Amino acid sequence: EAGVTQFPSHSVIEKGQTVTLRCDPISGHDNLYWYRRVMGKEIKFLLHFVKESKQDESGMPNNRFLAERTGGTYSTLKVQPAELEDSGVYFCASSQGHLNTEAFFGQGTRLTVV
Amino acid sequence: SQQGEEDPQALSIQEGENATMNCSYKTSINNLQWYRQNSGRGLVHLILIRSNEREKHSGRLRVTLDTSKKSSSLLITASRAADTASYFCATVHTFPSGTYKYIFGTGTRLKVLA
Q1: Which of A86, A105, B10, B38 lies 20 to 30 Å (CA to CA) from residue B87?
Q2: Closest chain A C-alpha to B104 CA, distance in angstroms
Q3: Which of A46, A100, A101 to mutate to test the interface with B (most CBs of B within 10 A)?
Q4: B25 CB near a chain A CB, below 8 Å?
């Protein structure tokens, strides 16, 4: 069974450009999460989808970030326009709809804004 | 407020020694989970302990949970060089809507010297 996959693994863009990150969760997992880790700091929650609905987007930094999950399958996270402080590793995770279960993580996308 | 603050931030030990990492959190939880991240990889789930449990074992891992002190510890016995990684605790919180999310801390960087 395929795990959570993220694309691209690395992205280097200039300030002001647009980048779109993609996450394919494990098939059948309704819950999809986006997290970000900046330079050794905590893994910060960004948002949570249940199927195609945004359940909690309280961690989204600002309106330059837009997440979508069309049809409740894969998800994209777009940053437009990118700023230097957006650099970090963006993780996607998925889980089944049960409380006492683990989250399965992708390998992350390392975003560098120069 | 940040949940799941790990302590120490970095730990260096000799192979064969035991490694202990601690995690503190602020609000009530449903369960607490420990994850490992190898450099450049995604997070991998290690162990889950429910709020009504006090101790749990899995191979060389031992996790304790003290809900009165809002803290947990992860003990890795007889450490190996392959245990070198960052370790994160994640607290799981539910909301009135029935949804839940995982909140991570800054992690403990463990280095096991051969």
Answers
A1: A86
A2: 6
A3: A100
A4: no
Please name the amino acid found at residue B59.
Answer: G
At residue B100, the pLDDT reads 80
According to the model, what pLDDT value does residue B4 have?
Answer: 65
Is some CB atom of chain A closer than 8 A to the CB atom of B12? Answer: no
Within an 8 Å CB–CB cutoff, is residue B1 touching chain A? no
Q: In the numeric block, which tokens belong to residue B58?
A: 């899995």
Q: Write out pLDDT tens, residues A99-111.
A: 778 899 999 999 9
Q: Where are the beta strands (DSSP E) in chain A?
A: 5-7, 10-13, 19-24, 31-37, 43-50, 53-56, 65-68, 75-79, 88-95, 104-105, 109-113
pLDDT tens sequence across A9-50: 999 999 999 999 999 999 999 999 999 998 878 899 999 999
Judged by CB atoms closer than 8 Å, whether chains meet at B48 and A33 is answered as: no
List beta partners, residue A104: A94
Question: Is residue A84 exposed (0-12), middle (13-18) or buried (19+ Cβ within 10 Å)?
Answer: exposed
